[in-house]
Structures are given as C-alpha cells and as structure tokens.
Amino acid sequence: MRIDGLLVVDKPEGMTSLDVVREIKARFLIKKAGHIGTLDPFATGVLPIVINEGTKLVPFLHDDPKDYEAVMKLGEETRTDDLTGEIVKKGVWEGLSTEVIRMVFKSFSGKIRQTPPMFSAVKVKGKPLYRMARKGIEIEREEREIHLYDLQIQKIDLPIIHFRVSCSRGTYIRALARDIGKRIGCGAHLISLRRTRSGPFTLEQAIPMDGLKALTGNEAFHSSLIPMREVLLGLPEVIGDERMIRKVRYGKEMIVRDLDPQTLPPFEEGQWLKMSSPEEGLVAILQSVLRGGEIGKADPDRIALRPLRVFRP
Q1: What value, to the nearest 5°, has the Cα angle with vertex 199 and ends 114 and 152?
Q2: What DSSP state is assigned to residue 246?
Q3: Model pTM?
Q4: Residue of 4, 10, 19, 40 marked catalytic
Q5: What is the per-residue burial (b if ≥16 Cβ within 10 Å, else e) of 201-213?
Q6: % pLDDT > 90, the chain
C-alpha cells in the first residue's frame, strides 16, 4: 500500500519539528516526509506532516495563517526571547495597570515590522542566525513585514499575560512577546506557546505522538491521513476526464478546446486550481492563464491552464 497525504500531529513539548518527522519516517517506513511551519522544541500543537507525494503540496500551503495560544512573562528579557535562554535584563512590572497593557496590545495590529530573533533559522548571507547566536555573536537583522490578523488578551495575572494571536507566515511569537514587553517598558519573554491552527488544520484533527505509537501497521496509519485531494480544500477543482488527465501527466498545457466551460468552477487569471478524478484522487495543481468566464469566448487554441505540480497515479 502506497501512503500519500497529510498527517496533523499534536507536537509535544521537548521534540523538535524534525524529531517528529524522523520518528514518523522510522516507525512507518516512510520514504519522504516533511513538516509545514517549524515549532520550537518548547512549543506544542498543530504540526502538519506531509507524506511521500504530499511533500509536493508544501509550496501551496506555506502562506496560510496560523493561530496560537501563548503566555508571556513581564519583567525579564532573555537571550532567546523565551524561557529556554538565560535572563539578560530585568525590568519593573510592579505597579503596571491593566489599561496600559491592553493599550499596548492594541497597538500591535494589522501589518507591522518585526525583527527576527537571533536564535532563529532566518539566514543572513547563507548562514542561519542561530549558528552565530550560539557563538555569542549578534548582528543587525532586517525587519520583516508580518500581519497580525487578531491579537487578544485572554488573562492578566501580573507578571503573567495569556494571549491569543492569529498571524501570517514568518511571525515569531517570541519576538512579539519581546516587542510588547519593550513597548510596555519592562521587557518580557515567552514562557508557553501552543499552535491551535495552521491554515485549515486544527487541534481537533491532530493526533498526539502517543496516539501514533498506538497505531499498528501501515493500514491504520493510512486511515489517519488526510487524502491528497482533501488537503487543498480551498482551491477550485477541475474534474479531469481520461484525456485531460493523460495530457496533464505528460506535462502538457490545457487549451480552451480541452475544457467544458459548463463544468468549470469560477476562477481568476493566475489562480491555482486542482485537477482531480474520482478514480485517481488528486492529479495535479494547475495555474490559470485566463479567467474562468473567458473560457467559452476565447480562441479554442489559446492556453487556459498550465500544470505546476503533477502527482503520481
């Protein structure tokens, strides 16, 4: 039985994201696997794992928003911006009003600039920052634009603040806690982090590592996977017939005459689509060259859809 698809894991504290991938590959004899969105070892929660042909889906999943529940501690800055690093600076949090704290949180909204932590995988001149940080070297880092879609305080029990955040790819919650602490004026670091959603994948779908250990055999593991066709639910779907599928598998483009406008979903120029069939599941990811509404009016020999990724049958 060939195993392809996506598995949503509830990563435990203490494991790296790569540890999770390695354990799954070893336990179920998986040839290819990878993870979407790295979680720090101290963090827990949703970690999507792509299996075999599922690894080809990664470019189409990376940009999805992510949700977290986090806890930060005021009054202490650490070398790593979280509880794993030594304290490098202390500040006074006593006497802070909840009104001031809430006002600062509200100032972190929408598109903001964030400097990635030194202890991160961000590369400068081809070298990950964490390698320099481990040698005690700190360098200037370029700010990056991130998007905070929602940031809500859940509980204030000074010096501890519980909060929830929904954010774009590339957001460091450690850096967010650091920057909030600086703006409050007393410093802060992150002490707990749990990812509750990564794109369409949620904790309700996630299997704990202990639950994976209870699975015996590839058939049980296969039944836990999200099928390839269901991973990209947000993409418009083209149902391919035998002729269309054969053409795409050879890497050929779909021209207008290949398509029936009556059976096509709405789509815009440049949009990604998925081609599927009831028998073969997900066949390919395509990119549109025309708007869906133009298909019935365009030159029959004009290119309409280009294959970006083709999956093995």
Answers
A1: 55
A2: H
A3: 0.90
A4: 40
A5: bebebbbebeebe
A6: 76
* CATH number for the domain that contains residue 35: 3.30.2350.10
Helix (H, G, I), strand (E, B) or coil at 144: strand
Domain count, the chain: 3
Tokens representing 50?
């792509």
Is 40 among the catalytic positions?
yes
Tokens of 82: 């979280």
State whether 280 and 175 are in the same domain.
no
Q: Is the domain of 251 the same as that of 270?
A: yes
Clarify whether residues 143 and 172 are in a common domain. Answer: yes
* Structural domain span for residue 226: 5-64+200-230
What's the CA gap between 313 and 297, in Å, rounded? 33
Q: CA dihedral defined by 12, 13, 19, 22, rounded to 10 degrees?
A: -10
Domain shared by 194 and 113, yes or no: yes
Helix (H) or strand (E) holding 177: helix 173-184
pLDDT in tens, 16-60: 999 999 999 999 999 999 999 899 999 999 999 999 999 999 999
Tokens of 223: 């039944």
